[in-house]
From TrEMBL:
The organism's place on the tree of life at top rank: Bacteria
Taxonomic source organism: Sphingosinicella microcystinivorans
Family that this chain belongs to: Belongs to the UPF0386 family.
Protein name: UPF0386 protein DFR51_0331
Source lineage: Bacteria, Pseudomonadati, Pseudomonadota, Alphaproteobacteria, Sphingomonadales
Length: 87
């Protein structure tokens, strides 16, 4: 599966315990998203386009309206890096 650099960054943050907060506009459509690391920092290159790509590929999921987190398929797809070994 082809995963872009921005998608990889987001998946790494989520694999280390981060989450994606979303806000809905009128109706059910998601209008804004924010990716937050485990330490509370914001991921700068994360936008609605990257979010939609991750969701379309089923690499992230939300259950019962909670923040989006990495799915099992996302954990398998993320490439290993040094900062992921200790978590």
């Amino acid at each position: 599966m082809n995963i872009s650099r921005n998608e990889q960054r987001a998946l790494h943050v989520l694999a280390l315990g981060g989450r994606i907060l979303h806000e809905r506009g009128e109706g059910r459509k998601i209008t804004s998203v924010t990716c937050i690391t485990r330490e509370g920092m914001f991921l700068a290159d994360f936008n609605l386009g990257v979010f939609n790509q991750l969701r379309r590929k089923r690499l992230i999921e939300s259950r019962c309206g909670s923040p989006y987190r990495i799915s099992k398929r996302g954990r398998i797809s993320v490439r290993a890096q040094l900062d992921n070994q200790g978590a």
